[in-house]
Design brief:
Two copies of one chain form a homodimer.
Chain A lengths: L16 H20 L3 E2 L5 E3 H4 L5 H6 L2 E4 L2 E5 L4 H11 L7 E10 L11 E10 L7 H17 L4 E7 H10 L6 H14 L1 H10 L4 H11 L5 H10 L5 H19 L7 E3 L13 E7 L9 E6 L13 E7 H11 L12 E5 L5 H12 L4 E3 L6 H11 L3 E5 L1 H6 L2 E5 L5 E4 L1 H7 L1
Parallel strand pairs in A: 1-5, 7-8, 12-13, 12-14
Antiparallel strand pairs in A: 2-4, 3-4, 5-6, 6-11, 7-9, 9-10, 10-11, 14-15, 15-16
Helix pairs in contact in A: 1-5, 5-11, 6-7, 6-11, 7-8, 8-9, 10-11
Pfam families (chains A, B): HGTP_anticodon (PF03129), tRNA-synt_His (PF13393)
Subcellular location (chains A, B): Cytoplasm
Organism (chains A, B): Candidatus Collierbacteria bacterium GW2011_GWA2_42_17
């Protein structure tokens, strides 16, 4: 029979069991932390009507959508978790209770040209707090508090949540009389770190911003110092724009509240260069970076938006949220060795029967599971050496050997696979030991 | 601005938060049980090359596939989790350790005509044990042991795992000299419960089975009694077919071992009418039914197969596995009221600050989370009544009210939302109480 070559598409992450166990552990830590703050889980279809997906995106993203038809339906795979949330809130608004805190960890799709570090199928882990009509600024402080706790628990080393408020730069543009160009300017600022000062300056000049003002903008977003220092500088600036003043006042309040939420000051840094490319954001914006220099780029980003579902509803749903790019983060961590896959089994012990009649071995395995120990049974009639080799390969920490002697004594020979130490124990003792 | 009507495709299950929490709880129970037996998690792309999907399916299923192209690639959404497993095992065989125990809980897609109880996007929860070259019969007994534990833990009432071995009926066909028709006969037997005796008999006659033999086949598969009784009847039958004898002997061994795995005899019933439609299965076959009559049909099914990856590899990978149709099961349980959605939040307590300065409330929320209590904070500046109404609507079991008094005393007024009882407590006591 002719064989089909087994393969997957480039840009689709697929893991071996030991890596998958690590990835799932990371997802579990994240979802548990989200739930710790009262965010409800959400799960929406991977497939949306194309009209929904296309409602509020640019042409570049449109091209990347996996689009298809089935019968008369024009469909596509979702490219993020925000559009489905907007559609969901507009659709079920009357059955939801606001403020609505939801998290969603799921796959999204962008058919980009595959390249190192870019994925076509990728997990995002999103939280959002959505209000109906209004939503207080406390929520802008809760989001970084959740992210802070997530990255503390993930134990990936030091990290910093960089924060700004888009009203500040937008207000500055108003002050310079180029308020209508604020979205373009914010996009340039967003790229500053990547393209460098000179290129960013030229990009601003190309937007017909005067040279002097372009330099002022770039100097402004590079303002550095402690959070208190930057706020002091902002407060002292003689800017008349109400938008600017509101931005500064919001930023000050959000920083203060974030610290009150228990976030260590060293993990939170005002950074006026944080702009987020999307015109979607209207206030607070965040980006989080790991300080480990091997991990490139922002690992999560988000912010405040005035109206989540404007394409789908006449009701106003302001919100604030953040998204962790899980697949990209995990793939980098694995590549550079920050995390290491070790065990290819969730079992803590492998029961190895040495006799064809497995009665006692089955009993032991059942008892261990009852006692809460994840237990795998070696089922094949192989030589002892092969059985131990299997245990070594899957990285199980203990094996419980059950031969004639053990059956007679109703005990188990427990071998610690790290130390090699072996002892004869009763089943209850095995559970305690592990 | 013209609005796009928010909507999803028919046949796609989408849940409100309280239902989603229930669904996730069910998924968690299932995945934890799979891990308790040492099955490693697997996650494969939703999108596969069409050639992979088409490698071993019939024309009916082909038509149901969501198929699309991106650039030069001919792609489709997976329609089950078995084809991806076959592709995975063929692709990474050299990096895996056999027997390979994996579970996968994920979505699959079939673009059927939508109708009540049929889903186009649905979760399956699969376990399989895959061997390289060979796989012992003990594994056929482990699978129902896992399923038994899953349904015990799900607490959906009594259930029965019905078991047979396809070699038995196939052997009987050999005996009747119509061995080449065994797959068609097995498909008729598989439909017996649904179509009834007379129709099934006619279907067999249409296959050019003699009337007398058609009746014998149907009488045979209706053999009832205890497992011991049925095995006794099978052993006493004077059938020369070696295949038949092997089937009976395998069935006897699998039943015996399944009981030794700790499965209660009342949950395990030999049923010779269990045939499974797919020609894919070659030995043991299972189906599980809930005894609650409101839940229709089989909730999970599976069996033994000789060669998992025959379309993708020259290596032989025999295996045994089972699949739970999670979306269909959940949707039925919810519809008939076996399970009920109550809480729309994972939080156990809602902290309600009564003052604009939330300092103490934020402190309390943080402390409760540190103590392991999922805690939501009410962030909006609303009237007390509205805050309590919110608590009622999301179904949170406790609220912690923090007003002037509480701030002064550094305590919390904890209200039990079920009993209405309220007491002034220290934060540590709140954590203990909840």
């Amino acid at each position: 029979m002719a064989k089909v070559t087994p393969r997957i598409q480039a840009g689709f992450m697929e893991l071996l069991p030991a890596q998958q166990i690590l990835f799932n552990k990371m997802m579990k830590t994240i979802s548990e932390t989200f739930e710790e703050f009262g965010y409800a889980p959400l799960d929406t279809p991977l497939v949306e009507n194309a009209e929904i997906l296309f409602a509020q995106i640019g042409d570049d993203t449109k091209k990347e959508i996996y689009r298809f038809s089935k019968g008369d339906d024009d469909l596509g795979l979702r490219f993020d978790l925000t559009v489905p949330l907007a559609r969901y809130v507009a659709m079920y608004g009357n059955s939801l209770t606001f403020p609505f805190r939801r998290y969603q960890i799921g796959k999204a799709y962008r058919g980009e040209r595959p390249q190192k570090g870019r994925f076509r199928e990728f997990y995002q882990a999103d939280i959002d707090i959505v209000g109906s009509g209004s939503l207080s600024l406390v929520n802008d402080a809760e989001i970084p508090a959740v992210i802070n706790r997530v990255f503390e628990k993930l134990q990936l080393g030091d990290f910093v949540i960089r924060m700004s408020n888009r009203k500040i730069l937008s207000g500055l543009m108003e002050e310079y009389g180029v308020g209508e160009k604020k979205d373009e300017v914010l996009r340039v600022v967003d790229k500053l770190e990547k393209v460098g000062w000179e290129t960013a300056k030229q990009m601003l000049i190309d937007l017909e911003i005067k040279v002097g003002e372009a330099e002022k903008i770039l100097e402004f977003v590079k303002t550095s110092g402690s959070n208190a220092k930057i706020l002091e500088i902002l407060n002292k600036m003689e800017i008349k724009s109400e938008l600017f003043k509101m931005g500064v006042s919001e930023l000050a309040e959000v920083v203060e509240k974030t610290i009150k939420f228990g976030v260590n000051e060293k993990n939170l840094q005002i950074d006026l260069a944080i702009a987020r490319g999307l015109s979607y954001y209207t206030g607070t914006v965040y980006e989080t970076k790991l300080l480990d220099e091997r991990v490139k780029g922002s690992v999560c980003g988000g912010g405040r938006y005035d109206d989540l579902a404007e394409s789908f509803s006449n009701q106003s749903f302001p919100g604030v949220g953040v998204s962790i790019g899980l697949t990209r983060l995990f793939s980098q961590l694995l590549d550079v060795g920050v995390i290491k896959a070790t065990r290819a089994t969730p079992a803590k012990v492998l029961v190895i029967p040495m006799e064809a009649n497995m009665s006692f071995a089955l009993e032991v395995a059942g008892e261990l599971r009852e006692l809460g120990v994840p237990t795998e049974l070696y089922t094949e009639d192989d030589k002892f050496k092969k059985k131990l080799m299997y245990a070594n390969k899957i990285g199980v920490p203990y094996v419980a050997i059950i031969g004639e002697d053990e059956v007679a004594k109703k005990k188990v020979s427990l071998k610690n696979m790290t130390t090699g130490k072996q002892e004869l124990l009763e089943v209850k003792m095995v559970a305690e030991k592990i």
